[in-house]
Design goal:
Helix content: 25-40%
Radius of gyration: 23 Å
Strand order of the largest sheet: 1-4
Strand content: 15-25%
Number of helices: 6
Largest sheet: 2 strands, antiparallel
Oligomer: single chain
Structural class: alpha+beta
Number of strands: 8
Length: about 180
């Protein structure tokens, strides 16, 4: 949203603060560009919030841009294609596949028993015994969790006898963090 008249901007900002206090499901943020964003639980919810903002909280006129809808995706089966990424010099290639995790494993990561903050030995033991993971994979091959480094998604190194792989680990982890966050 953006104030129609520049002098109404303080009213709009104050109204956004009141709106976010009155409705716990609304998130009002200001982007770096200065744009004020209202996030809600669906189009109808946001429309009601905009009406309340206009009539009760800000009591000024403002312009509303088209809504942006966020989509969330998940992996439901083993990917049908292997993704290939090449380094700029074309000498290195990385092949990636996505596969779904067991629902129980996702829950165990979220509750912390298999998460990144868990004791590595306990985590490896639980992964091998309860989730039938290979011992070496459970101990040394988990590269990162995502999003935000502690979510229920994993990057697991499935390579064998590849030299200098550690040199790209940080790049793969950053790309994974960015992807799971978006």
């Amino acid at each position: 949203v953006k104030a129609k008249d520049g002098k109404d901007l303080p009213k709009l900002v104050e109204g956004l603060k009141k709106l976010s206090k009155s409705d716990p499901l609304v998130v009002c943020t200001t982007e770096e560009s200065g744009e004020h964003v209202i996030a809600g639980c669906g189009e109808l919810h946001v429309e009601i919030c905009l009406k309340d903002l206009r009539d009760e909280y800000a009591q000024c006129d403002f312009v509303v841009s088209d809504p942006v809808v966020s989509f969330r995706e998940t992996v439901s089966e083993l990917s049908s294609q292997t993704c290939l990424a090449k380094s700029p010099n074309k000498h290195n290639r990385i092949y990636l596949v996505a596969e779904p995790m067991d629902e129980e494993l996702s829950k165990a990561i979220e509750d912390g028993s298999v998460g990144p903050k868990a004791d590595p030995k306990e985590r490896a033991k639980l992964l091998t015994e309860k989730f039938d993971w290979d011992k070496d994979t459970a101990q040394r091959k988990i590269w990162c969790y995502g999003p935000e480094t502690d979510g229920p998604n994993l990057v697991v190194d499935q390579t064998q006898a590849v030299q200098y792989l550690i040199e790209i680990k940080e790049h793969v982890n950053s790309a994974f963090q960015w992807t799971t966050k978006e």
